[in-house]
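User: Here's a protein and a ligand (beta-D-mannopyranose). What would the complex look like?
Assistant: Let me lay out the input and then the predicted complex.
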Amino acid sequence: MSIKIIGKDLPNMPWEERKGPSDGLPVWRYSANPIIGWNPTPSTARIFNSAVLPYKDGFVGVFRADSKHINPSLHVGYSKDAIHWEFEDTPISWVDEDGNPYNHEIHSYDPRLIELEGKYYIIWCVDFAGCPTIGLGYTEDFKKFVRLENPFIPFNRNGVLFPRKVNDKYLMLSRPSDSGHTPFGDIFLTESPDLKYWGKHRLVMKSGLNWWQETKIGAGPAPIETDKGWLMFYHGVITNCNGYVYSFGAALLDKDEPSKVLLRTEDYILTPQENYETNGFVPNVCFPCATLCDAKTGRIAIYYGAADTYTAIAFTTIDELYEFMLTHNKLGKGDSEAVK
Ligand code: BMA
């Protein structure tokens, strides 16, 4: 029953053991949550749904910041301990592949940050002809940011790149959407030989398995490679009388054919419960966009946006999570097949 993270050791990642009795779920919250509160920089009101990575002798992040006129944009931040962050007040400026300025978009949100073949790729939701789709770009130094072609036409959100090629192809998870608050959504996988041309689409998982993930689901952080397959955290949404509630769960995807689901948590592993999750700009949202992991100990820190207002951390270990996934596994129709 043992499972191993395939990746680097990260002994300086944030970590805290579970305090108090278990609530029956494999994930526990950092006791000093939230780590980022209101008005984090002069021009921004809220930082949430953001992505972090180890960088040099500390950490770097690409953060979704909503300005004081409520416009979402991407900002760089640095930290020594991945808990206390310093942010740039000015949003990222992009150039195209020829070096010309490329800042067409009005809205930029929900970034994922992935180290792939020595570059740092950013995948986020962006305007394309005024409609939401997935944006893709990279940086090598967090100073110059290069925009690549948009992988998909609208409408799409929650694009997540795998951290390495699988069968010599780049892989991207995404969730086709509408132009607004999208009352539906399933997770798909698409491949590319060159990060420019995307195709060979496969369904990964559908919403509707049970109520916490009834309305829509979307991939969260970059999948984590293990010797048993790819660990994917994902958000699931229920619509109740007061609106949407965003929880998150976990799935294990086949190592060589990641559109096949091996395990999927029947229960959520984290749901809005604490004050900073249930109260804020959009109450009842827990939205994971990044993890930090230590391969040696199996520790995982999950970075999630809380109530579209705060950034928070939850912890688990690969062993505890895997055991929960084995004992609380429920697959949906078609999950374990390659559905075209
Ligand atoms: C989604 C995205 C997320 C947000 C969520 C809840 O559509 O816009 O950025 O956290 O709604 O408001």
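Summary: Residues 49, 109-110, 181, 246, 282, 285, 287, 305, 308 surround beta-D-mannopyranose (CB under 6 Å).
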